[in-house]
Structures are given as structure tokens and as C-alpha cells.
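Entry 14. Structure prediction run on the chain below.
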Amino acid sequence: MGMPGLLGAAGLLAAAGAGTAGYALWEARQYTLREATVSLGRDGGRRPLRLLHLSDLHLSPRDADRIAWLRELAGLEPDLTVVTGDFHGDATGPALALDALAPLLERPGAYVRGSNDYYAPSASNPMKYLQGPSELRTRRAPIDPTPLDEGLTSAGWVDLDNARAALQVAGWRIDARGVDDPHIRRDRYPLVAGPFDPGADLRLGVAHAPYRRVLDPMAADGADLILAGHTHGGQVCLPWLGALVTNCDLPRDRAKGLSAWDGAALHVSAGLGTNPFTPIRLACRPEATLLSIR
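Output returned:
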């Protein structure tokens, strides 16, 4: 191939790369509501529980569209909303999250925190994710989680960070437990360990990052359903390969959606946001999920 041919090929590759990048920026704003059904395999004689699972909001002032979309979700009238962490996209996140969730705060809810609820994001090389789970960088500025906690709990939402709670929602008795973010080693599952209440209508486990050291004991203790986020569904997915990474030790084929984990149903949300320094998604649209639990 002569020089003109090489230049032409290089131009085509550059155009294809620019087109893919533009599409990935666009896709990161295509918020999607997904629906799934979880069957518990026992007859409780109750109508299905409508559980809205949100994760990885990563809110910052540039996300007016995401905030508006989140506020509209209250129209689904979920019985229970569970947020699996990373409310914040920067230090302004607490106020933005409370504004975005305000209509949902009028209904029952529960939550755990993620690393971005403690530390502001910082720029990093995204290729490092291919080498294994990311590490907490000491140069990240701390964020006080108190304003977010006070806003959520004053509305009646339950903080499940290394905590257990008995909930009564829409005629369902829910035995819930959660851990603080395993990705930055704040999880203390022994504080909440032990068999779930066998008389509960739903035995629910919650974590931000779905590390096996948390999923395994939750399932062994009798969880019906475990909710998690953190993975962003891989954020960049490829045909036939799916997610390239999960940023934890979860297998790539469990990076998003509903699957089984040692007898428990596991739902991993692909989340709604991204790190502000890599605001792209490819074949992995931002999502919220309405789970019908029967």
C-alpha cells in the first residue's frame, strides 16, 4: 500500500474512533428504565413488591438531565427504593442527590454508600481498570457523608451500612442487611452476620461493590435477593465479549442484570452515571431497574 493509501486508512480509523467516542458520549445520557421479575419460590399470598433499584448516580452540576429523569421515577410508585451507593459526582453531590431523590423520599427507602460518597473523584488512566480493581488514591479530597445521611434518614430512609433493619413495606415483612463499601474495605459483615429471619417475606442483602467476600456469606445466611452496583455494567462493552471489567472480583458475565449466586438472586445495577473524567458508555446504557418480587 502506498503513502496515499496509508493516509486514507489512517483517516478512516481516526474517523471511526471519533465516531465511536461521540456515540459513547451520547449513550451515557440515554437513561433507561429496565424491569425484571424475582420469584421467591414460596407463596406469601401478597401482591408483588415493587422495588426500585438505583445505583451510581454520580451527580454533579452538569447533570440536570439526570436529576430530572430521576425525579420522574416517583411516578412509578415503587413500594421501596434501594440505592446502592455512589450518589455523588463531586463535592456538590449531597445537595444534588437530595434534590433528585426528593419525590422518592416521600416513599420508603434504604441505602448504602459507595467510595464516591466519601471521596471526590480524581483523574486517572482508564486503561488501569484492565489491570484489576482500582485502588483508593490518597489525593482524592474527602467528602463529609453527614449531610446526605441526615437528609435521607430524616425522610425515613434506612441506612444499611454495616447495619440490619426490619422493614414493613406494602404488607411485606423485610429482613434487610447491608455493608459499607467493600471496594474501599469499609465492609464489616460480621457485624450483621447470622441467619436471616425465616419468617420474613423477603430476606434482602445490600452492598455497593459486589465482592465475593460479601456475596458469599449473605447467600449462605439465607438471602433471597442481593442488590449491588459499582460495576457500571462494565461501562464499555463489546459484542460477544460483553463487559471487559467489573472493577471487583465479580465475574464479567455478572456485571449487570439479574443472575443467581449460591441460591440467592443477585441484581447488579449498571447504574446511571459515570466518573466525570470518563463520561462515556458503550453498549451499556445508564439504567434504573424496577424489580417485581413475587
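Residues 31-121+139-293 form a domain with the Purple Acid Phosphatase; chain A, domain 2 fold (CATH 3.60.21.10).
Filed with the rest of this week's runs.
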